[in-house]
Design brief:
Strand content: 25-35%
Structural class: alpha/beta
CATH superfamily: Class I glutamine amidotransferase (GATase) domain
Shape: globular
CATH architecture: 3-Layer(aba) Sandwich
Radius of gyration: 16 Å
Number of domains: 1
Distance between the termini: 20 Å
Length: 214
């Protein structure tokens, strides 16, 4: 049975992600086993990997680095072996070169860019950006198959990933400025929104992720 590893490093909406992935695996009869794990060896061998994340960038990066062998296992599985990877919320932000929340903190550096505070032009827009917002698809991607233009997803964040290379951006959303909503490069993808909380749109994306052959 093919394993989908959800990385447990003490920060993330683990059970909701596990439940949503298990649902789509069952509905589509993919045969995947969804595993929440802090075991680097399980992640190293997994067919595909999900990295969730909730909280401050530095706390999440420190938590991930503190799990014995986990960063190395992720590099081996994703960068060397090419396992399909999905980062969610701060799990996506950790892919950047640097996060600028409470100082500058190094990220994984898989996607060039920086994580910066949302700065809406409209002062009435509150931070964090929280709730449903429209996805603006910048370019087609297999994870967005059957996601219609104008679809909405659920966001909760105060910072966003500003990509250094425009081609890494798959979708954006507007909140007084253009914010990165989804990124992708090769076998690596990430969403700022929470697919596990985004109802039909999110379940569709997770189903596409289980079928994705980058």
């Amino acid at each position: 049975m093919s394993v989908v590893a959800i990385v447990d490093y003490g920060s993330g909406n683990l059970r909701s992600a596990e439940k949503a992935l298990a649902r789509v695996a069952s509905e589509h009869s993919t045969g995947h086993k969804i595993v929440v794990t802090a075991d680097a060896d399980v992640v190293r061998r997994a067919e595909r990997i999900v990295l969730p994340g909730v909280g401050a960038f530095a706390d999440c990066m420190n938590g991930l680095s503190a799990v014995p062998g986990m960063v190395e296992a992720l590099k081996e599985a994703v960068l060397k072996r090419g396992a399909p990877f999905l980062g969610i919320c701060v799990g996506m932000q950790l892919l950047a070169d640097v996060g600028r929340e409470f100082g500058d903190h190094a990220g994984l550096g898989w996607i060039h860019g920086e994580v910066v505070k949302i700065a809406p032009s409209d002062a009435s827009l509150k931070i964090p950006h929280m709730g449903w917002n429209e996805l603006r698809i910048v370019r087609p991607h297999p994870l967005l198959t059957h996601v219609e233009p104008g679809a909405h997803a659920y966001f909760v964040h105060s910072y966003h990933l500003r990509c250094a290379q425009a081609e890494d951006v798959v979708a954006t959303t507007d909140y007084g400025e253009t914010l990165t909503a989804m990124i992708a490069r090769g076998n690596i993808a990430g969403t700022q929104f929470h697919p596990e909380k985004s109802q039909a749109v999110g379940l569709g994306l997770l189903g596409n992720f289980l079928a994705w052959r980058p």
